[in-house]
């Protein structure tokens, strides 16, 4: 294809109505209205498709994302909601030649940042030589004094870095900011790729798009090489499920096969970093953090951090583990540093910056402060110590766009406290096409690219995360303000290597992560098991209650009143169609599951969201009686759907055992209480039938005990039958079996108190006759089970 | 002056705690031109599983402790023999405020004693407009930085009431300033914040002070507590000058330094002790006994 033929068919199909803004560089369309060569194959492919086929393909990508549970957290007012991942379906396309220039510039920049970090945490020669103002370091909250004078284990401060790029009016790429603290988004880039290939798989392979998997494979090898011995674990540390990019932390952890930890999972003992697991302390060699350094160690940084690990900073100073990136490397994100990087590049890497960053003036110097005052209207005015992009921090403003009050305040600040202010040139940013209501429209775009350290130096991810503004205003790039994201394709004239991390790009590695089950995860799985079971029991009772209410609203027998009395101590009021306590119970399930998200398949997560949504929709409108009985059937089906997915899809490994133990323990406790009340001699007529229904054993009972309708047969079936999966004895047998398979703790593992207690509970019930299962026995059993739960907690979760 | 110092910190948790890590800054260092430590010891009970001594960024002696076994109390006893011989400047060699700005700017170092660390806000030292206004009264044209410091210290001494019940260890300076009451920690923080508003680098000093007994009386054993005062950078020539606003005096041979930093957070004697209420009890006693040299 030649340029001549391109020009012969300007703006075909979808591109026909596309109008870039005059004077702004557009990624897809040149100023003369022709489609840029790198985009041509995709635009051709789109033109070959009917509008409804295009919609179908876009929908396929969206369905993948929603099935995979990709979302982000939107913060508004007091709360946060999970939003569908805002994927824009057209990728940003760059050809290999242009990409190589970007990559070379970023490799140089990564080297420069590493050298600068070593200086800032080393002997501060740049300050001594006058290349860096001392107050930019000394006043910087990201300069962590406890780390000064220490070289990290492995010798490097930086291992994984992100860069924000944008084009100026002339189409030249410029660096807008550096991400060195805990760069996010690489996992989202992978997910975008998988989603987009669902929509344009054929075009994607025909266009020789560079694969992303090799980048992650190389970085994983690098992390592996940072360990001092092979038995040390590599883990990702996260602030936890409330973080806006927690989904991505869990995704990357599963993709690379590393456990996802929180601060409390780590313990510093004898100066070394360990993971608290159900098998005791295990050595940790490498931590890839998604946690800001200030929160990592309450002894040395923020004392109010509840998500850190006391002693971690000291262990890192002693080179007992490698931290990616080193604590304190966040200082490199400081906006004012951009003003000094050109001169520092010359000094530290002996070259000019290959990829210039946006011009920045730090107002701590009189000449610069004057310049900014003179060109105030044309410049972005913001905080010198800010670490976010000017277009997304919500504070930085173009001088001309300020209200008179803001402007006055900013000028006053500039005069009195210039060192905390920077002025930056406002660059136009390029635009790229976004599909809005079946029309392509140009929107400003910022490109985030990642560099990872490998044995052979820096490697640049051939792709990245394009972030697109919601409106024509570049400030609308932030996801929190409606921005979208797009995949980034780097296309080659030749076929590309089909390297993959695993069998197929984007598939998750399911590996046993070094046999490591953190105690906190086990604790959460145990409680997840208990909460799911508790919710299920409540639903079963409510269904039985409401179907009887529908038939006999007068409650002459007093059965409904008795059931209400039974539910009261559980906080459940059955006279409401969907009791508040049920909504809470489902919330408990979801919150607990959220804390162990890296352990679930997306299907399990989706089932849970579906459940939660259904309960939320029912809650305001369901009436007691038949309406509620039917709603309970729907909820029950969804709840068992979730348990089914978990039990069918989770590997029978230690984590599953804790979930199973939680479920069995809860079911035994609930059944003991149910029998105690419903099989009581004085219980109203129909109580035994209701007990069988709640225990899902009506048919079995009818078949087996056709002639007897006495309480003893019910007790036999629901307490003592070793084959009935709802009987107490069945739960105790399962508890005993699973507890025996848990990892040994301490020296006397074979006769550990936990195992002996599980054995004793099982035996003591197994030898009983139905007539001997009375209130006292059931009461004792319930308190013994609570004791077993405590024993399990003390043995494995502390 | 030669002192035998004994500091004891006792924490009674009231129930067993599983373990824990603590960071201590309780041991005085040798500081040329100020004090020489000839002997020191730190005993910890119960015996910690781990113990590690280090020097922090500001040159303070720190000790990290790790406990792996349950314990329901913790006792630390630091003993040191320290000789204090301060070289006090005979003349005021400090510039005025305008001159100081130039001298600060000329310092191209981020070493532990560089003035650059001691000019900006911290969590404990926010910018408080009322304190800025208060500080202005100590400033007058041509007045030397040292004279400003001394005036500021003297005013805090006379305008504020010493009242151990008015504030706690975490009371913000805004509150202490509004109350015009507090203890050495509050006075030191307020004075540092005031210095910052005038462009004078200033930091926090923790240590001990000998309580001189009233004439004819036995000095009280253990009556003293850990003390805090201020140091301010008064230019290239004068360097760091220490002033004690609680006692309206320049630091003398009665002041023994334990640690220096930007604010209390940098020098806290102990970090990482459970702050839980209930039966939790703490107890601190300090004994600074002059030793007759012979």
Automatic annotation (TrEMBL), chain B:
Pfam (any one): Transglut_core
InterPro entries: Bac_transglu_N, Papain-like_cys_pep_sf, Transglutaminase-like
Domain (Transglutaminase-like): residue spans on this chain: 176-247
Organism: Tianweitania populi
Protein name: Transglutaminase
Lineage: Bacteria, Pseudomonadati, Pseudomonadota, Alphaproteobacteria, Hyphomicrobiales
SUPFAM superfamilies from the UniProt entry: Cysteine proteinases
SMART domains noted in UniProt: TGc (SM00460)
């Amino acid at each position: 294809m030649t340029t001549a033929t391109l020009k012969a068919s300007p703006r075909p199909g979808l591109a026909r109505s596309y109008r870039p803004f005059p004077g702004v560089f557009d990624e897809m369309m040149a100023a003369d209205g022709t489609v840029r060569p790198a985009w041509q194959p995709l635009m051709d492919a789109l033109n070959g498709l009917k509008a409804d086929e295009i919609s179908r393909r876009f929908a396929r990508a969206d369905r993948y994302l929603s099935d995979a549970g990709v979302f982000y957290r939107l913060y508004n007012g007091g709360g946060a909601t999970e939003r569908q991942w805002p994927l824009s379906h057209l990728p940003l396309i760059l050809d290999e030649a242009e990409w190589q220039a970007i990559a070379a510039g970023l490799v140089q920049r990564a080297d420069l940042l590493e050298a600068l970090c070593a200086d800032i945490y080393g002997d501060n020669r740049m300050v001594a030589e006058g290349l860096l103002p001392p107050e930019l370091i000394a006043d910087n909250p990201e300069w962590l004094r406890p780390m000064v004078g220490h070289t990290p284990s492995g010798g490097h401060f930086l291992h994984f870095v992100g860069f924000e790029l944008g084009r100026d009016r002339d189409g030249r790429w410029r660096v807008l900011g550096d991400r060195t603290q805990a760069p996010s988004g690489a996992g989202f880039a992978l997910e975008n790729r998988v989603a987009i290939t669902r929509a344009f798989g054929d075009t994607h392979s025909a266009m020789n798009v560079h694969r992303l998997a090799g980048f992650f494979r190389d970085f994983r090898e690098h992390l592996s090489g940072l360990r001092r011995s092979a038995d040390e674990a590599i883990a990702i540390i996260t602030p936890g499920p409330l973080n806006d990019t927690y989904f991505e932390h869990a995704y990357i952890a599963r993709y690379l096969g590393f456990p996802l930890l929180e601060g409390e999972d780590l313990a510093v003992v004898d100066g070394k970093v360990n993971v608290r697991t159900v098998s005791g302390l295990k050595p940790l060699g490498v931590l890839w953090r998604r946690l800001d350094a200030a929160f990592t160690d309450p002894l040395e940084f923020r004392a109010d951090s509840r998500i850190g690990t006391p002693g971690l900073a000291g262990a890192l100073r002693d080179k007992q583990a490698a931290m990616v990136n080193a604590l304190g490397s966040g200082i490199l994100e400081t906006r004012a540093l951009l003003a000094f990087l050109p001169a520092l590049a010359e000094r530290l890497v002996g070259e000019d910056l290959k990829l210039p960053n946006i011009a920045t003036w730090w107002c701590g110097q009189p000449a610069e402060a004057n310049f900014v005052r003179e060109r105030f209207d044309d410049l972005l005015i913001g905080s010198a110590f800010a670490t976010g992009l000017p277009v997304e921090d919500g504070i930085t403003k173009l001088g001309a766009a300020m209200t008179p009050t803001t402007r006055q305040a900013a000028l006053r600040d500039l005069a009195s406290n210039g060192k905390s202010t920077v002025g930056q040139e406002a660059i136009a940013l390029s635009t790229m096409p976004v599909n809005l209501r079946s029309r392509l429209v140009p929107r400003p775009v910022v490109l985030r690219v990642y560099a990872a350290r490998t044995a052979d130096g820096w490697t640049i991810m051939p792709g990245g995360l394009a972030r697109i503004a919601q409106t024509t205003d570049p400030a609308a790039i932030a996801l929190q303000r409606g921005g979208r994201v797009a995949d980034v394709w780097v296309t080659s004239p030749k076929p590309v290597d089909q390297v993959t991390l695993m069998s197929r790009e984007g598939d998750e590695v399911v590996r046993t992560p070094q046999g490591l089950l953190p105690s906190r995860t086990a604790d959460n799985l145990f409680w997840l098991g208990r909460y799911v079971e508790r919710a299920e029991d409540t639903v079963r009772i409510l269904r039985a209650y409401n179907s009887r209410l529908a038939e006999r609203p007068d409650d002459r027998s007093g059965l409904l009143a008795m059931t209400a009395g039974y539910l009261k101590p559980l906080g459940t009021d059955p006279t409401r169609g969907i009791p508040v306590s049920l909504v809470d119970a489902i919330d408990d399930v979801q919150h607990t599951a959220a804390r162990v998200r890296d352990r679930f398949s997306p299907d399990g997560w989706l089932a849970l969201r579906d459940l939660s949504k259904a309960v939320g929709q029912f809650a305001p409108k369901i009436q007691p009686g038949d309406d509620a009985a039917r709603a309970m059937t729907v909820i029950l089906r969804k709840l068992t759907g979730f348990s089914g997915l978990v039990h069918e899809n989770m590997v029978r490994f230690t984590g599953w055992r804790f979930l199973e133990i939680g479920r069995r323990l809860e079911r035994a406790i609930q059944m003991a209480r149910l029998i105690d009340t419903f099989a009581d001699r004085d219980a109203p007529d129909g109580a035994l039938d209701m007990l069988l229904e709640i225990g899902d054993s009506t048919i079995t009972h009818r078949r087996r005990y056709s002639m007897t309708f006495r309480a003893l047969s019910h007790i036999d079936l629901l307490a003592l039958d070793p084959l009935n999966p709802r009987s107490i004895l069945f739960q105790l047998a399962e508890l005993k079996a699973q507890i025996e398979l848990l990892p040994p703790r301490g020296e006397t593992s074979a006769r550990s108190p936990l195992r002996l207690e599980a054995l004793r509970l099982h035996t003591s019930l197994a030898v009983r006759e139905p007539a001997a299962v009375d209130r006292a026995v059931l009461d004792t059993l319930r308190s013994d089970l609570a004791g077993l739960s405590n024993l399990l907690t003390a043995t494995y979760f502390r | 002056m030669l002192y035998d110092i004994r500091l004891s910190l006792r924490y009674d948790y009231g129930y067993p705690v599983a373990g824990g890590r603590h960071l201590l800054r309780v041991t005085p260092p040798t500081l040329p031109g100020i004090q020489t430590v000839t002997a020191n010891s730190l005993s910890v009970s119960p015996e910690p599983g781990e113990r590690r001594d280090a020097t922090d960024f500001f040159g303070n002696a720190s000790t990290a402790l790790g406990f792996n076994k349950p314990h329901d109390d913790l006792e630390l006893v630091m003993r040191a023999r320290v000789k204090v011989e301060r070289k006090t400047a005979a003349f005021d060699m400090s510039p005025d405020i305008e001159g100081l700005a130039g001298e600060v700017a000329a310092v191209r170092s981020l070493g532990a004693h560089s003035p650059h660390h001691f000019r900006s806000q911290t969590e404990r030292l926010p910018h408080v407009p009322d304190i800025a206004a208060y500080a202005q009264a100590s400033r007058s044209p041509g007045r030397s930085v040292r004279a400003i410091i001394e005036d500021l210290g003297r005013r805090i001494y006379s305008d504020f009431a010493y009242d151990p019940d008015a504030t706690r260890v975490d009371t913000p300076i805004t509150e202490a300033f509004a109350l015009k009451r507090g203890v050495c920690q509050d006075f030191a923080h307020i004075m540092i914040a005031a210095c910052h508003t005038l462009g004078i680098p200033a930091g926090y000093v923790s240590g001990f002070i000998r309580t001189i007994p009233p004439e004819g009386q036995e000095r009280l054993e253990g009556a003293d507590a850990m003390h805090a005062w201020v140091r301010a950078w008064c230019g290239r020539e004068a360097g760091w000058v220490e002033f004690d606003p609680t006692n309206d005096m320049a630091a003398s041979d009665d002041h023994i330094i334990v640690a220096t930093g930007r604010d209390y957070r940098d020098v806290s004697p102990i970090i990482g002790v459970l702050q839980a209420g209930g039966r939790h009890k703490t107890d601190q006693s300090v004994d600074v006994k002059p030793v007759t040299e012979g």
